[in-house]
């Protein structure tokens, strides 16, 4: 199984592909890490990605600020699937796996989705709220 992390930047030229070639891949700020991230919100030994025969497993190593997979905090360990989002402090990665041999296909382009805003917010469709603007509270009772 081939595994890689994709870190997208502001532009396609800033995208970074990080192949995971060993069965254990340590991420953190420490000198012994396979991926060193110089960010204060990253622990010295933040998390470990382990490649098993038919699975990829992420283990949080007691990091102070947590490791998140698809927005959910990893308390111990979790199995990963291709397409999962991994967040470490301010850094975000997408995990990609492949069972085929040969070169990787090119990474997919990022997708932008414009969500409709509720009427009466003072915002135009597709416009994010500014620092002084808030999303309206849902005042509808639950069904």
Q: What structural category do the secondary elements indicate? A: mainly beta
SSE succession: EEEEEEEEEEE
Query: Which range best describes the helical content: under 10%, 10-25%, 25-40%, 40-55%, 55-70% or over 70%?
Result: under 10%
Reported for the largest beta sheet, the result is: 6 strands, antiparallel
Q: How much is the average pLDDT?
A: 80
**Which consecutive residue ranges, at least 5 long each, have pLDDT under 50?**
117-121, 125-139
* Number of beta strands: 11
Reading side by side through the largest sheet, how are the strands ordered? 2-1-11-10-7-8
Shape: globular
What would you report as the Rg, rounded to the nearest angstrom? Answer: 19 Å
Estimate what percentage of residues fall within beta strands: 25-35%
Task: Compute the number of helices.
Answer: 0
């Amino acid at each position: 199984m081939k595994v890689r992390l994709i870190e997208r930047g502001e532009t396609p030229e800033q995208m970074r592909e990080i192949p995971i070639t060993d069965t254990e891949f340590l991420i953190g700020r420490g000198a012994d890490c396979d991926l060193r991230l110089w960010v204060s919100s990253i622990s010295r030994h933040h998390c470990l990605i382990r490649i098993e025969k038919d699975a990829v497993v992420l283990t949080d190593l007691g990091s102070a600020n947590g490791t998140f997979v698809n927005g959910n905090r990893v308390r111990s360990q979790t199995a990963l699937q291709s397409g999962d989002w991994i967040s470490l402090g301010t850094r975000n990665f997408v995990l990609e796996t492949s069972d085929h041999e040969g070169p990787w296909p090119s990474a997919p382009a990022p997708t932008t989705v414009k969500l409709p805003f509720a009427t009466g917010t003072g915002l135009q469709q597709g416009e994010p709220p500014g620092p002084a603007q808030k999303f309206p509270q849902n005042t509808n009772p639950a069904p």
